[in-house]
Specification:
The chain is of the alpha/beta class. It is built from 15 helices and 13 strands. The mean pLDDT is about 95. Pfam families: Glycos_transf_1.
């Protein structure tokens, strides 16, 4: 297929892993396609777009906008429509059936509900962002044109000790503190309550926990920290764009999600040699190997036990995490490799 005109559609456009990927794709597709259109509401990610990307600011979640979006696709002779998040499935399916556009859905997540209903709305082309996601869905999506392309993320630079100390000092963190980092939207999916309850079992440990992210549960989580006597142990940082700084100053990344696809932050953390503790959900095991600890998501004490184990054996986990950075296995998760694989896929159609 000739790479002429492509459109990307996503229902949310604030901070988030999938939004970050949509921005990356749009900004880089301008080098390969004659025209790049992005259908998304106005949001914090809007300012990150290349000025060559035509951003159609529209409420994708409002189904009344379906005819308008299809008209823009038709008028601009779009040949490929790339969808992110399941809310885009009706747009993808109708663009394929009515306008004969090549529609592609990106399965970035392993969802717990409505999978069969969404199958009925899926376009012909499905891209899984890990082999684990593919294994989860392949029996449901027999007969579809399935393709697995590993997700790619940012590879950051490892900071020297002096810079790390300076950044910790800016946050009022003593050098002798064990720094736990949690990065993600403050929502039910990310399950920060589990993290906070786990920290209560570690009150006598010399740690500080940084929770970076915004979301609807912030007030409730702050109250939970207060009720459990962790005010001196937990810092809510809000939404942050300096992820490179945060993963460098931390001693461990701890993620307690109920369900996941393939979090960008795992790649970002691993790229600087940061050990990871995560619930064993989604594609976590693709990155969390000798460099960290996977925890049964149903275990009540799993996270606190894992943090204790990490602290007790930290030199070994850190050594493993640093070695993982330079492995040929990990290098395949760079965002530029992902981009190249997408371009090759579209050329092959």
């Amino acid at each position: 297929m000739n790479l002429t005109k492509i459109a990307i559609i996503i229902p949310d456009f604030d901070a988030g892993g999938e939004e970050k990927r949509a921005v990356f794709f749009a900004n880089n597709y301008v080098r390969y396609f004659e025209k790049v259109i992005l259908f998304a509401p106005d949001g914090t990610s809007s300012a990150l777009l290349d000025n060559r990307v035509e951003h159609v600011k529209i409420d994708v979640k409002s189904i009344k906008n379906l005819p308008k979006i299809l008209k823009i696709i038709k008028d601009n002779q779009v040949t490929i429509l790339q969808g992110h998040k399941r809310f885009t499935m009706p747009y993808l399916l109708l663009a394929e059936k009515v306008l004969k556009v090549t529609s592609v859905f990106n399965f970035d997540n392993i969802y717990l509900k409505f999978n069969y209903a969404c199958k009925l709305l899926s376009p012909s082309y499905i891209i899984y962002l890990s082999s684990i996601v593919e294994d989860y869905y392949k029996s449901l999506y027999k007969g579809f044109k399935n393709k697995t392309i590993n997700i790619g993320g940012d590879f950051y630079q490892r900071f020297d000790k002096e810079k790390i100390l300076a950044l910790r000092n800016e946050l009022g963190i003593d050098d002798n503190k064990f720094v736990i980092l949690s990065l993600g939207r403050l929502s039910e999916q990310k399950n920060h309550k589990k993290l906070i309850y786990s920290l209560t079992a570690l009150k006598d440990t010399n740690f500080i926990c940084l929770i970076a992210g915004s979301g609807p549960l912030r007030s409730e989580l702050e109250q939970l920290v207060l009720e459990n006597g962790l005010v001196e142990k937990v810092i809510f940082l809000g939404h942050r764009t300096d992820v490179e700084n945060l993963v460098n100053i931390a001693d461990v990344l701890v993620q307690t999600s109920i369900f996941e696809g393939f979090p960008n932050v795992f790649i970002e953390a691993a790229s600087v040699g940061l050990p990871i503790i995560s619930t064993d959900v989604g594609s976590s095991k693709s990155i969390v190997r000798e460099n960290g600890i996977l925890v049964d998501p149903h275990s009540s004490d799993g996270i606190s036990d894992a943090i204790k184990l990490m602290i007790q054996n930290y030199p070994q986990y850190k050594e493993n995490a640093v070695a993982f950075v330079d492995s040929s296995y990990f290098r395949q998760f760079h965002k530029n490799i992902m981009l190249s694989n997408y371009i090759d896929f579209y050329k092959s159609l």
